Amino acid sequence: MTDVIAYAIIALLLFQAVWRIPAALRGQSRERSLWGAFAALGVAWLLRTDLGRAVIDDLGTVDLATLLKHVITIAGICVLLRYVTAVDGDIAASDAAALRRVRVTAAVHRVATRASVATVLVMAAVFFLVLDRTHTESPYFMARHAGEVGLALYMGLFYLYTAAAAAVCAYQWGDSARRARRWTLRIGLTMMAVAMALAVLYAVVRTAYCALITVHTVSAHFITVQENVTDAMLYLVFLLWAVGTIAPATQALVNRRKAKRALRALYPLWRELALAVPAVILRAPSALLPGHRFSARLNRGRDLMKLSPPPYLRLERYITEISDVQRTLSHYATPGLYARATALADRQGHTEDEARAVADAYWIRSTLVAMAAGATAHSAPVDVPPADDDFDVQVERFVRTRAAYSRTDPETARALLRSDVTV
To answer: How far is residue 236's CA from residue 202's CA, in Å, rounded to a whole number?
Structure first.
């Protein structure tokens, strides 16, 4: 049963590592750090299994799998602290109240980075030069070295490092969970914070056990019970942490799908405006096989299926560029155009958000007609539609505008340009 749980934890950790490879390859330092933590801890857990130990034991060095497991765990923790520090730095940029916490986390990371090298070197020296690795009676590493002062030094360093790092992570994630607005993020961060708190307790219990067996002989039954209890604690730590990290990632996946849907909805409007006013567009729409009957589908697929930049960044660019095109088109608007478009939407029976979308759509159509007809651009913007400060509101507004735009009548839009005509 324990092997099943161990392999389940390994699968969760390695799944997270594989899942995050694209983000790590894009050069995002936070994602690289988190990927490194998952990969390192996944390998460390592999070394806890009979299979992992058997592979390393073939090298001929007794207990080498244990040393490698501890060293790789320290490396994974160090990288995880780098991730926590990076996240805290981003929070500090928008939350001055978190600045003190960020300074503490950054200081701990700097110390931990230096301490990790020293810890590994001392542990390796104790392992090869002090520990008596000729004893193989017990299946447990600590039990085999019971009574040796070197064991207390070796494991004491490891658990001290582990407990300090876990305490920092528990503090950071617990505070972030308290501030989180989305329930998925709050649940995930809470699980991660609880996992780190249990990790601290695990390290304390193991340290106490190590001290006990160094100065006192205990029964085989006590050893077995202790190993089973602390293993159960460790399983719970990693299950909570691995599952907890999936919850925020699930929210990211939901946001990604939402951004993709918005991109698909906005694409026809963005493409038409981008072709009409290419000067304000960062990347022009695809123009493969012009005139071919499949060109529209081909170009749409090529533009929407790009892997880089990620969907939410492309959505931000689409919204920005649509807004920039609107500002350019405002130089071709006639005085009172938006008011006439709003009145038209009211006469057609539209209300609230739908009425605004229809007015925006007719304003865009009319200004495009004026520009295409060769109208002289005004030196200053004229009758610009009211803007929104909230990005999500902008997205929803432009999506509704795109739907309304597909139903606009060009002749009606042309008539709206004339201030003496009521449509």
So the answer is: 10
